[in-house]
Structure formats: C-alpha cells, structure tokens
Amino acid sequence: MKVIDSLDDIRGAGIGLVLVLAGGLMAGNAEAELTFELLPGGDGLMGIGEVGAISTDGSRIGGSALRMTSWSREAFVWDAAAGMHSVQPPLALPARSMTYGVSDDGAVVAGWSLSADEGLFCWVDGVSNILSGYAGKAVFALSRDGATAVGKAPASRSAASVEAVRWPTAGGGSVPLGDLAGGASESQATAISADGLVVAGWGSSADGREAFRWSGGVMAGLGDLPGGRYFSEAAALSGDGSTIVGRSSSASGIEAFRWSAAGGMVGLGDLPGGFTFSEACGISDDGEIIVGLSHSARGHELFLYDESSGMRSLLGLMHHAGVDLTGWQFDQCRPMLSGDGDVLAGSAVSDELEMVFWRIGGIRSIVGVIPVSPIAIECPPSGIEACLTVQTVAGFSYRVETSTDCGCLDPWAP
After folding, report:
1. How many other C-beta atoms are found inside a 10 Å radius of the C-beta of residue 260?
2. Which pairs count as long-range contacts for 390-393, CB under 8 Å and 24+ apart, including other chains?
3. Is the pTM for the entire model greater than 0.85?
4. What is the pLDDT of residues 138-151, one digit of tens each?
C-alpha cells in the first residue's frame, strides 16, 4: 500500500472524495459578533493620540488626543452617545493632559496634566477638582465607582523620590502606600481593583525594580521571572485583585507575566518570530483573558491570551473572523481591555498611514477559537491511503466532512 503524506502527491493520485477537516469550539460555546470601529475626533480634537482608560463594559474610553489649533494633547472621554469630548482641566496653556481613569457611570474622570506646573485633575459630576498641583505627581488608575485614584507622588516639592499613593477623588490628601524593603525609595501604583481595596504597581527592592501587590496596608513584592536581570512591573489587576499581569525580565528577554497567590509569577511567552518581547497590559475581571503587546515576524503585534489556547496574534484571529488589518502598525499601542473582557481599545497607524483610535467589540467571541482553515483533498483511487497530520488542541472538537453521500464522520476530540 502506498502512503501519500503531501497534498501534491494527493492531487496527482486521482479524483475521489473531498475531505474537509475543520476545528472549532466544543458545543455549548456561544458565538458573538466581532466588531471593529474607528473613533472619530470631536470637540475640536483629532483622532491622534493614545488611550489610557476604559469602563467595565467598554462603553466609555479615555485618553489624550491632539487639538490642531494649539498642537497640544488634551485629555478626552469618548462614549457612543456624545462621541469624543475634551476634559482638559482649567490650567494655564499650553498644557498637555491625559485621562487615566473613568468611572463606570461616567460621573468621575481622573488623569494627569502638565502646564506651567504638573497637577492631578479630576472631574466629579462636571466640576473640576485639582487633586494636587506640583511636579512629580500622576494618576494612573481609578476604581470603578470613581471614589479612589492611584498613582505616584513625591513627599514634597523638593523631594527627589516618588511613592505610590491613593487619593480620594472627592478631595483630601493622598495616602502613601509605602515602598518595598531595600533599594532606592521609589514606588508607583499603576492599577487598582474594582472596589479600590487592592493596588498593584512596582517598587525598588533590594534586588531591583519589582512588581508589588498592596492590600490591607501591606505592600508585598511579587518577585520576577527566572533568568535575566532582576526586573518586573505590574500593569493591571483582575476585578478582585487576585490576579496581576505585567512584564518581567526572563532568560529569553522581556516577557509578559501573570501572577496569582497560588501559582506565583508565570511567564506567558511571546509571539513566534522577531525578537523575544512581550508585555501584558490588561486583564478581564474574571482573570480569564489577558491582552498585551508582543513582537513577531510581522513586527509589533497585539496578543490575546487565555489558558486553553496560550498567546495568539489578535490580528490573526481577527483576520480569521473577517477583519483584515494587514499593514496596520501597533508599535506605540498599549491596548486597554474592559473589565467584562469583551471590548478592547487603543491607537494605531492604519494601512493608509493615518493615526487613529479604534475599538473592538466581541473579544470573547474569539477567545478559545483556533483558526483552522478547511483543507480540501482529493481521495486517491482504491489501494492508496492518504495521510494528513494536523496539530490539535485539547478541549476542542474536530470533524471530517465529505463531499459525497457519506455524510460527516462523528466529531472527535484529542
């Protein structure tokens, strides 16, 4: 019996049945619609800048956009009803500002502004509240109800070091979170849990820069990945603060990580091709979906990570779903994932070399999906066996269909 293991051999072997191999989710996984939209400028702002905040359901997005008349970057908030509108604080111009937090009800917006002096700004029900007005302070995250902001601040105007802090957005002084033992006196808070009780960021420990988790008044270092120089930074938290993601230095290079109390810090790898690099920027509230940036043979790419499928190219998954972003550049993008894990937002340079803001809905519809294009082969005449090897993934079902009355073979799972 002749064994044929290449498609070229099969094509030359004769005409017969056409077998189609297809892979997909196991039964019971609902399929939702994947949407991709550009966010146009508004309120005198252009679609040029960066995204720094997103609400739990992805209906509100914040960041910084260019105002053409002054060539300054202004903090903005976008929502489907009102579009993009400026939330620039009332500071002296020229100024630059950035939104790093928007509450789920849209009533509170917080961020950072640089004018004649640096300051932390906050809008509460449309009223501006400058949380602080001297250099070195910055807000980087906001709790879901908008009551608490976190970031960094020096102890005084003349202080050389900065410390991770929390601020009540309704007014009042900042609350220092401390620093890790050893090393320089330096720390910065970058993420906060949904209820505002858990904070993550990085500090300077005796070993080097190290990611931390703060809860109940205690700051604990999270360590780093083995190999390479000692380095880790936390970027985002799950809703309850139990899972933290960010980047660390491993034996391979800078690598995205996920941390939990049970599993410790675990590297997530990177996309194949290119140089070794990945960093996690966002995580869903349930901790199941992680997004970030990596480098592949095609350059910088956005990735989507889940436990069953590992790290995959978001552009590849979207292409499989019918959204072609070939030629788009995401070098400077740090994607923001909504708490429900279904909306992703960021900035990019399009294939027409235009700087744009974008929003992707239906992210959960492509979680766990393995793009497998149907493979058609011609069955050879009797006495010749065609062998086709396909890589499979546990937890997914596969089937073989035929073009004749033979029907479809029973689905099978590896």
Report:
1. 14
2. 390/21, 390/23, 392/23, 393/23, 393/308, 393/309
3. no
4. 778 999 999 999 98
